[in-house]
Structures are given as C-alpha cells and as structure tokens.
C-alpha cells in the first residue's frame, strides 16, 4: 500500500508537467496518483497507523488536497480491510494547496504572460524550461529589457557594463546563462555560434587575456619597442604581431620565462609565457606556422599533455629540455599530480616513452630545477 510520503513524492513529480500544461493552456484534468493496492504486512496497529497518516493529509480532513476512494480488499494477514484504491486531485486548487505552490504558480503565470507577450517565439523554451522561469522569478523584467535591447541592437560592440539598459551594471554578468539561451533563440542570424564566451557570441567588447612575452633579440627590442624586452599585450594584438621573428620558445612557468633573459643572445627569437593549459590562448596566432616553434614544460605527465595540446594547434612544435637524459640527471624524487588522461597524445615515440614512465610513477621534474648551465648547453 502506498504511504503518505510516497503520495507526496509522486505528486512533486507531477509539478513540471502541470506547469507545462499551463503554458500550453490546457485545462486541468483529474490528476491521479498511482498506488499499490496490495498490503502484505501482518500488524493491525501498523496498518491503522499508515491509513491514518494517509487520511490525515486528504481533502476529506484538510478541506483541500487529494481525494481518497476506498475498497474492501481481502489481505493476506489482516482479513478484509478498506484500502485506498484511488488517489487523485480533483482541481488545480487542491493540487497546488497540497504542494504549497499557490503563490509560486500565480507568479509563474504572470511571468509566462509577460515573456510570451514580449517574445512569442520563446514559448517552446518556456515549456522545456518551466522551472527556470520560476528560478528567475524576480528577474524577468530585467531579463526582457536585455533581450529587447539586443533585438534592436544585435551587434552592440560595447562592453557589457556600457550597454545603455536600465539595469544594475552587473546584472547581465550574473545572469549570462539564461540570457544566452534566450538570445540564441531571438537572434538566430546574428549569433556568433562558433564561440561559447558570451561576449564573443553576441558581438560585445571584452577584456582579453594578455600574452606575456620576452624579446631575446636586443636589436628587435630597440628597433620596435624602445628597448623594452618584457611585454604583455591582448590576444588579438598578439595574433597580428608583425616582427622579424624566426624562432619562438613557449615556456610553461613564469620563473623559466625570466631564465630566458639570461641566455646568450638569440637572434630573431622571443619567449612566451604559456601558463600551462592557457596555451589555448595562442592557438589562433597563425604566424607561428612560419617560425621554428619550441615548447619547454615541466617533465611530468601534465607537461607532456600540454605539449600535446599545443602540438594539436601547431604540429611542427618541438619539445625542448623534456628528454630522458635531462630527467635522469636532475630528478629529485618529487611527486607530481595524478592524471586521468587516457587518450592518445601528440607525442614522438621518445616523448611517449618518458610520458608513460612519469604517469605510471607519478614523477615530476619542474623546469625551474634544471640548472642554468644545462639550459645554456642544451637549449635548441
């Protein structure tokens, strides 16, 4: 036999489909809660307690809620007893009062009307995301203001906080997820769908990550940057950099970036701070295809995984100081970070062999621990 808690749980599960029926303007239909008509327990007091709990929450006792219909059923241990054979909600009011959702649904109806009046094309989204309408219950006026602005100005080319919308300056940033879903529907011809980032997707200005690099050729430093050899510029500017460079070193750690400045003069060469997996930021620097490209990372599993990632953008990349001889010379039994990567990497046979050893033993040699004399003797 169904318990009072099971009735509650099953009723909760009906809520989303009820909200969807409201959006579709379907009239409320008798809502049945399916229960088990059998009863196998042998204790009469326990039986009476369970029946009492079910009845105490019913419409008969509380004036609203579910209706019970009983039938005399012959049980295995308790002879013939009246068991609930039908549990149902007659009206929308009974259903909502039982769930305690009257006020929430009142606001939901108001929000649905507000949204569909402004943008009828969002009706299907509401049906699929009824609970998200409720989650954002206090925000819909401002969300719709944002949508209306973008509808009229699909390519603003402004920073988010510059947008001339009468909302809190941080509102869009706090509500990007739901606004993005709506704009994808409302602006199908203007969405820059190749990007996931909100700003790029909807033609907004944004604060770009900076690419930090050092110029290792003093002549280039003097001629192009008044002697400045340590720079950080936005990605978009770095991607269009036009310098007489023939060689690029990408290094994983910031300390090692400083080390590169102590190297012997390196003609037409720059060193870039890759910052681990942030090498992703370099993937559109197409001028890399016209230079010799080297990657120098930690000798650990992650170092080779980052090398593999970088090589997927630029297949001609060569590793630097990430070899077995260097590892065996300076390894100090340091432990690395376990990796769960199981896919095949873009590594040479020698790199793959060392990677497997490092991964199996969870070993690490950080590039900072390689002495400068060794770097100078073996670099490039």
UniProtKB/TrEMBL annotation:
Locate the Wadjet protein JetD C-terminal domain: which residues? Answer: 207-378
Q: Which Pfam families match?
A: DUF3322 (PF11795), JetD_C (PF09983)
Name the InterPro entries for this protein.
Answer: DUF3322 (IPR024537), JetD_C (IPR024534), UCP028408 (IPR014544)
Native source species: Sphingobacterium hungaricum
**Protein name, as recorded:** Wadjet protein JetD C-terminal domain-containing protein
Q: Which positions fall inside the DUF3322 domain?
A: 5-184
């Amino acid at each position: 036999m169904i318990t009072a808690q099971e009735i509650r749980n099953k009723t909760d599960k009906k809520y989303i489909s009820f909200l969807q029926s409201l959006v579709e303007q379907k009239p409320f239909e008798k809502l049945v809660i399916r229960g088990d008509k059998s009863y196998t327990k042998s204790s009469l007091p326990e039986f009476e307690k369970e029946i009492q709990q079910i009845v105490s929450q019913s419409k008969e006792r509380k004036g609203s809620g579910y209706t019970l219909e009983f039938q005399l059923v012959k049980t295995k241990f308790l002879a013939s007893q009246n068991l609930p054979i039908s549990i149902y909600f007659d009206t929308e009011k009974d259903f909502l009062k039982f769930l305690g959702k009257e006020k929430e649904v009142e606001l939901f109806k108001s929000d649905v009307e507000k949204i569909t009046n402004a943008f009828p094309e969002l009706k299907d989204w509401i049906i699929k995301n009824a609970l998200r309408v409720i989650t954002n219950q206090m925000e819909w006026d401002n969300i719709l203001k944002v949508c209306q602005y973008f509808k009229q100005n699909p390519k603003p080319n402004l920073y988010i906080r510059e947008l001339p919308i009468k909302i809190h300056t941080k509102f869009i940033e706090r509500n990007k997820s739901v606004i993005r879903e709506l704009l994808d529907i409302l602006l199908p011809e203007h969405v820059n769908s190749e990007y996931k980032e909100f700003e790029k997707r909807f033609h907004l200005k944004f604060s770009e990550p900076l690419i930090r690099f050092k110029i290792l050729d003093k002549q280039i430093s003097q001629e192009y940057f008044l002697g400045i050899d340590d720079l950080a510029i936005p990605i978009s500017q770095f991607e269009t950099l036009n310098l007489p460079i023939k060689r690029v070193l990408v290094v994983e750690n910031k300390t090692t970036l400083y080390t590169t400045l102590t190297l012997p003069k390196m003609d037409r060469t720059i060193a870039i701070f890759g910052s681990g997996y942030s090498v992703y930021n370099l993937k559109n620097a197409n001028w890399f295809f016209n230079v010799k490209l080297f990657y120098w990372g930690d000798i650990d599993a992650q170092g080779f995984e980052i090398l593999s990632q970088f090589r997927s953008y630029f297949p001609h990349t060569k590793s630097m100081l990430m070899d077995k001889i260097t590892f065996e010379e300076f390894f100090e039994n340091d432990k690395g970070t376990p990796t769960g990567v199981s896919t095949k990497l873009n590594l040479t046979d020698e790199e793959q062999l060392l990677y497997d050893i490092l991964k199996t033993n969870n070993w690490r040699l950080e590039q900072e621990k390689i002495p400068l004399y060794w770097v100078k003797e073996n670099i490039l």
